[in-house]
Fold this protein.
Amino acid sequence: QVQLVQSGAEVKKPGASVNISCKASGYTFTTYYIHWVRQVPGQGLEWVGIITPSVGSTTYSQKFHGRVTLTRDTSTSTVYMELSSLRYEDTAVYYCARELKATCYFDYWGQGTLVTVSS
Amino acid sequence: EIVLTQSPGTLSLSPGETATLSCRASQTVNSIFFAWYQQKPGQAPRLLIYSTSSRAAGIPDRFVGSGSGTDFTLTISRLEPADFAVYYCQQYGGSPVYTFGQGTKLEIK
């Protein structure tokens, strides 16, 4: 069955970087895009960026441009999200989610990774 | 960037009733690229409806999506206890830019 399994919770200091992984299984990794969406506690969903695993191309939300980097390892079907220069307001649950190419909706989601930014 | 505004913010209904959730876009949305999600506390969102009116796998026909242009609706009939959750609309506006509404909380009255 399709699964997106994310790495565990992280606690980071302001200014630091965090790296979260999303391991895909149960489908052909290169057939789907992988997105990252974040949710500040008690708030709504916010799109962060997208990676095309087959070629590694990326696009980021303007809000995060310059601070976020998405990469992938096709040998392990894993996507990584690095967010740098962390601020208190980056405290959120970060989800990876799958999109069948050019359908523009997310049919499977990871379980979420809580990133807490605290001094 | 297209902004999605959901209403009401909170909807209080009883099991067995029908819920009508609205999502209004600031500009015309391509209905092919419009979706609805359900999120329960502590869980990831779950896809309910895609392309405005197509149900995702395993979603019962009590969930009906409709709309076009700037106005979209999710109707949930014969509410069951498991339906009480937060619902988000989502659209793709090119660039690429994916945006979500702020959510409607469906709570038990």
Summary: The mean pLDDT of chain B is 96.
